[in-house]
């Protein structure tokens, strides 16, 4: 009988659990979201009986009794690992709602700040597409987002006591599919660090290979002007969520079609919340730059 573990966190948890199984094939590893813990006291009681609970920090007051500060008092077997959030490659990404519900974009969840701001300004989709250039990225502060995201990521990791191999990640170009979806090798590289912190032996060498489940979600491009400043080649090709792919299996959608698709969605959903502060700020910056 192997060790009994649980992983608690966001959409990255399944990959983390797969990494544990790759290192310890005999281990029993369950995956839970914080919402599940909030709604089922029996789960928390079960977590108390396990060898180790690997958890991403839950800091918001809305988590209530399962906030990390509270939960750690009950789970003496809890080891924290960071939720990987990094907007540095994809500073144009935003989430939108319509009538209080999440609004899907042409690729699934991720919307474009530039497209949303341009639509709110009354521009055409064709004009909005032409706004995807270095001048606009500079006006919107996109080129500074990498360093801001890097500082945020290091701070998040420090709260868990882990030192992340960010330089190794960067050696492979972009290590994110979107602002909240890291590539599999990122998640895999954190697993040995967390296991070691739990007092478990970990094999030397490369991190375990795990299935790249998040690659099936919508994938954002790293725009060439941003990628070039970071030392690799970018593009403007989006990938749809695998559930949205066409009959031929092709998930690709170019920038022009993506923006046009966003505009069509906004027209069809008049309740879309285009009054968000970041959209208002982007509109103001576009006007100040004379971009109409």
**Major sheet description:** 4 strands, parallel
Per DSSP, what share of the residues sits in E-state strands of 2 or more residues?
A: 5-15%
The structure class reads alpha/beta
Instruction: Give average pLDDT, whole number.
Output: 95
Helix content: 40-55%
Cross-sheet strand order for the largest sheet: 2-1-3-4
Give the total of domains: 2
Could you describe the 3D structure shown?
With 292 residues, this protein is of the alpha/beta class. It has two domains: 4-80 and 182-214, Rossmann fold (3-Layer(aba) Sandwich), CATH 3.40.50; 93-144 and 220-288. It is 40% helix and 12% strand. It has a four-stranded parallel beta sheet. A two-stranded antiparallel sheet has the order 5-8. A two-stranded antiparallel ribbon has the order 6-7. A hairpin with a 2-residue loop joins strand 6 and strand 7. The chain starts with a strand and ends with a helix. The relative contact order is 0.16.
Please give the structural blueprint.
Blueprint: E1 4-8, H1 13-23, E2 28-32, H2 34-39, H3 41-47, E3 52-55, H4 68-74, E4 78-80, E5 93-94, E6 97-98, E7 101-102, E8 111-112, H5 113-120, H6 125-129, H7 134-139, H8 145-160, H9 166-170, E9 176-178, E10 181-182, H10 184-197, H11 224-229, E11 237-239, E12 252-254, H12 255-268, H13 277-288
Parallel strand pairs: 1-2, 1-3, 3-4
Antiparallel strand pairs: 5-8, 6-7, 9-10, 11-12
Helix pairs in contact: 1-10, 5-13
């Amino acid at each position: 009988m192997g060790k009994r573990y649980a992983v608690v966190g966001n959409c990255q948890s399944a990959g983390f659990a797969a990494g544990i199984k790759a290192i310890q094939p005999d281990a029993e590893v369950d995956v839970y979201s914080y919402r599940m813990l909030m709604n089922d006291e029996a789960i928390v009681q079960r977590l108390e009986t396990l060898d180790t609970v690997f958890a991403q920090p839950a800091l918001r007051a809305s988590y209530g009794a399962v906030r990390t500060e509270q939960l750690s008092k009950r789970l003496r077997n809890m080891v924290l690992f960071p939720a990987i959030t990094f907007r540095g490659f994809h500073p144009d990404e935003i989430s939108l709602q319509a009538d209080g519900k999440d609004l899907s974009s042409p690729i699934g969840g991720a919307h474009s700040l530039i497209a949303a701001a341009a639509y709110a300004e009354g521009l055409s989709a064709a004009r909005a597409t032409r706004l995807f250039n270095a001048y606009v990225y500079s006006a919107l502060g996109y080129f500074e987002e990498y360093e801001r995201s890097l500082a945020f990521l290091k701070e998040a990791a420090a709260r868990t006591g882990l030192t992340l191999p960010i330089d190794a990640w960067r050696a492979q170009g972009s290590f994110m599919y979107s602002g909240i979806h890291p590539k599999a090798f990122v998640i895999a590289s954190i697993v040995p660090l967390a296991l070691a912190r739990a007092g478990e032996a970990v094999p030397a060498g490369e991190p375990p290979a795990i299935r790249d489940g998040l690659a099936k979600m919508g994938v954002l491009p790293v725009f060439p002007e941003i990628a070039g400043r970071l030392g690799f080649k970018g593009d403007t090709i989006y990938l749809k969520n695998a559930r949205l792919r066409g009959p031929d299996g092709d998930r690709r959608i170019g920038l022009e079609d993506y923006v046009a698709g966003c505009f069509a969605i906004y027209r069809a959903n008049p309740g879309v919340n285009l009054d968000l502060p970041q959209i208002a700020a982007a509109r103001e910056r576009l006007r100040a730059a004379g971009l109409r």
